[in-house]
Design a protein that fits this description.
The strands form 4 sheets. Strands 2-1-10-5-6 form a 5-stranded mixed β-sheet. Strands 3, 4, 7, 8 and 9 form a 5-stranded antiparallel β-sheet that branches. Helices cover about 35% and strands about 20% of the residues. The two termini are about 55 Å apart. A hairpin with a 2-residue loop joins strand 7 and strand 8. Helix 1 packs parallel to helix 8 (about 155-190) and helix 5 runs antiparallel to helix 6. It is an alpha+beta fold. The protein is built from 11 helices and 19 strands. The radius of gyration is 28 Å and the shape is globular. It has helices spanning about 1-20, 25-35, 45-50, 55-80, 80-100, 110-130, 140-145, 155-190, 265-270, 300-305, 330-335, and strands at about 250-255, 260, 270-280, 290-300, 315-320, 325-330, 340-345, 350, 360, 375-380, 405-410, 415, 420-430, 435-440, 450, 450, 460-470, 475-485, 505-510.
Length: about 500
């Protein structure tokens, strides 16, 4: 107990320091980031399956539990030799320091101070609590041995009470301080829109959504997903805060004219808008790690033309301010009819911090893990063989076009429905090939073609709807899509790794 409480004190003190001092790392987040960087193949899939978009909070929680467990072990050893407890606290402090120093945005001096503070606070708390516990004192056992008697079997009531009260009070204080520190840390890393200015007007604006491009069936996902409801999957445990006054976007590598742009210079370039559906490769069949938004930005082709891409530059590598990397074929980005972009806006506002402010890559048709770099720092031209993006060594495919997929939004799986005519509806996507047809089967019967919304473009999803006459009983509903190349969504299920989940979305409902 003494060790676990002392570990809580160390964590709380380090979190408060990180929250009060800008640039100081949260040691819990630093260790979590290290765990992410060292994860074995398949770990991402397991975490997303278990926790979905709460995977980061779950990892932070597991790091805290592991740290407290290690501290409890330190307490057990400190009962014999106090220096053993200090040694374990020191070793864990060195691990946390190493993890913090590996983060690109951390100030090294503050990392050293915070790790040292955590070790000292934890060690002092451990020493005091061990001394309050009579059985934790080596001197007591030594005295008992010299007297020829056995150590006392239990603490005297008052000593036990004093120890428990001290431990409980210290733990309560640590929880309060830790929560305050975490709140201050989170306040340093806001997730929403952080710009107070207005997004410049694009030279090329999209027309308003027409009445035949959006369906309004209750329970159906909106054609344009609101920004605050848009999914977020990335490796950042804390949203990177980028100072746009010093930020620059660099374009380098196998180019004739390397250059960099300040944020103001980027915004001054010709901007355009486009609707693009993006998806995470971890999205399960029927999952919600996919969304459609209106993006505003600069044509990537314009930037590449300005730089002058050299022959043999077969890969574009996007690098984030936090060290994350993606890689996709140059030929994909330069193909006619496709408009990859450096996005600066989302749904006609600046990019929110958690979606990549000040700039991110949006590449129609590719899963985000090989293309959609948030908090973009540089774009490098290289060869396909020279660089593997972050996720490729962890078992994910290097080539990752988004699969043809469809989903049932309403009725919800496992829910009851009324007898009679009801609307079955959902979304289907195959960017940037487009959706040609959506079909629905009831109780393994013939495929029935659904009505689909008029596509905004081949880069976006469509909504679909079909009327069904429900009779009493339990029923299955299954959906499949066909893209504009004629490719029919397969019914053969696969895992998400290495290139996305396949199969039909199939649900069960009960009418009555």
């Amino acid at each position: 107990m003494a060790g676990a409480v002392a570990g809580s004190v160390a964590i709380a003190g380090s979190e408060l320091f990180a929250g009060l001092v800008a640039g100081a790392p949260s040691l819990i987040v630093a260790v979590g980031s290290l765990v992410i960087s060292l994860q074995p193949p398949g770990a991402k899939e397991v975490f997303v399956d278990l926790f979905g978009t709460n995977d980061k909070a779950a990892l932070n929680g597991l790091i805290v539990i592991a740290a407290v467990a290690i501290a409890a072990t330190a307490g057990m050893l400190a009962g014999r030799r106090i220096w053993l407890g200090w040694a374990i606290f020191g070793a864990f402090g060195l691990v946390a320091l190493g993890a913090a120093l590996s983060q690109p945005l951390v100030q090294p001096a503050l990392a050293v101070v915070n790790a040292s503070l955590a070790v000292v606070l934890g060690g002092i708390a451990l020493t005091i609590l061990v001394r309050l516990a009579p059985l934790g004192r080596p001197a007591n056992r030594a005295s008992a041995a010299q007297a020829g008697s056995s150590p006392p079997a239990s603490m005297p009531d008052w000593d036990r009470r004093r120890f428990l009260l001290a431990s409980a009070g210290t733990l309560a204080g640590a929880v309060v301080v830790g929560q305050l520190g975490r709140a201050l840390v989170d306040a340093q890393h806001p997730a929403g829109v952080v710009s107070t200015s207005r997004l410049p007007a694009p030279l090329r604006s999209v027309p308003p959504i027409a009445s035949d491009q959006a369906l309004t069936t209750p329970g159906l996902t909106p054609l344009i997903v609101p920004t605050d409801q848009f999914y977020r999957i990335d490796t950042a445990l804390l949203v990177p805060q980028v100072n746009v006054r010093t930020w620059k976007l660099e374009l380098s590598g196998m180019v004739d004219r390397p250059f960099s742009l300040t944020y103001d210079e980027l915004l001054a370039m010709p901007l355009f808008e486009q609707y693009v559906t993006i998806a995470c490769v971890s999205n399960r069949v029927g999952g919600n790690l996919v969304g459609n938004a209106l993006w505003t930005g600069v044509r990537l082709k314009d930037l590449l033309e300005k730089a002058g891409v050299q022959a043999g530059a077969t890969q574009i590598v996007g690098r984030s301010v936090d060290g994350f990397t993606v890689g996709f074929p140059t030929s994909w980005a330069t193909a006619a009819g496709r408009e990859p972009m450096v996005a600066v806006g989302m749904n006609r506002d600046f990019l929110p911090a958690d979606h990549g402010y000040p700039a991110r890559l949006i590449v129609p048709g590719l899963y985000g893990y090989v293309s959609a770099t948030k908090w973009l720092r540089s774009i490098d031209l290289t060869t396909r063989e020279a660089v593997d993006g972050y996720w490729v060594p962890l078992g994910w495919a290097k080539d990752a076009p988004i699969l043809t997929q469809s989903r049932i939004d309403t009725p919800a799986a496992g829910k009851g429905v009324a007898v009679g005519s009801i609307d079955v509806a959902g979304v289907a996507w195959a960017p940037d090939r487009g959706i040609a047809r959506v079909e629905v089967s009831f109780d393994d019967g013939d495929w029935q073609e659904a009505m689909i919304s008029q596509p905004i473009s081949d880069a976006t999803w469509v909504q679909w709807r079909v009327s069904w006459a429900a009779v009493p009983g339990r029923h299955t509903i299954e959906v499949r899509a066909t893209d504009r190349t004629g490719d029919v969504q397969t019914d053969q299920p696969t895992d998400t790794a290495p290139s996305g989940a396949r199969g039909h979305h199939r649900i069960s409902v009960t009418a009555g």
